[in-house]
């Protein structure tokens, strides 16, 4: 599996940046993981719409789903140009709540809609997904993705919770929400700190940790130093990078 980082900014995109969005590739399979502000343009450059296999949204905060609202217009245009069959529907996996955001996204003219639940498993092409509920103000899910013994774990947005260790256990690559430095972290925060991400990677015996979702004013170097003090095999996500799982 290859994971391409389309965007990794938290809350809102920095100048020339984009919020959360990833393209997971395995052979001819392409799965989009989150589609926040600024991601769609980068997605179009990374892969043509005819090769998009599914869109999976961890939760329905705007920095993880706002560009999904206009993605349907790409599908509409592709059908009008004869590049996609008129009956084509893209698989869309997303939480049921909040109801307003769900209703905006779950357009059954363009999507085959699948509702996420805690512990749910789904076969998306050649990839096996397991969804686990995370600890965030909105209904949110982490993803454990497996193919031929290789494991990618993506926390989405979360703080500490019981499902984190099972999500990450033995993953070859853990992509973790490091929205704050530890001095600004508390048990009531909506995000993990970089230090907490390092502890999770160590305790779950993962191969590599990728810190993502850096919040405004939280420098990449400070986040990296904080996590590497606990787990040396750590990198900070940057748009455009590609990692072998």
Notes on the structure:
- It is a single chain.
- The protein is an alpha/beta fold.
- The protein has a single domain (2-237), classed as 4-Layer Sandwich (Metallo-beta-lactamase, Chain A).
- Helices cover 23% and strands 31% of the residues.
- Strands 7, 8, 9, 10, 11, 12, 13 and 14 form an 8-stranded mixed sheet that branches. It has a 7-stranded mixed sheet with strand order 6-5-4-3-2-1-15.
- The N and C termini lie close together (5 Å).
- The mean pLDDT is 96.
- Residues 18-213 form the Metallo-beta-lactamase domain.
- Pfam families: Lactamase_B_2.
Q: Determine the number of helices (DSSP H or I, runs of at least 4 residues).
A: 7
Question: What would you say the CATH architecture is?
Answer: 4-Layer Sandwich
Instruction: Tell me the number of structural domains.
Output: 1
**Range of helix content:** 10-25%
Q: Please tell me how large the radius of gyration is.
A: 17 Å
- Using DSSP, what is the number of strands? 15
Calculate the mean pLDDT score and round it: 96
Give the biggest sheet: 8 strands, mixed
Unreliable runs: none
CATH superfamily: Ribonuclease Z/Hydroxyacylglutathione hydrolase-like
Q: What is the H/E order?
A: EEEHEHHEHEEEEEHEEHEHEE
Query: What portion of residues belong to β-strands?
Result: 25-35%
Euclidean distance between termini CA atoms? 5 Å
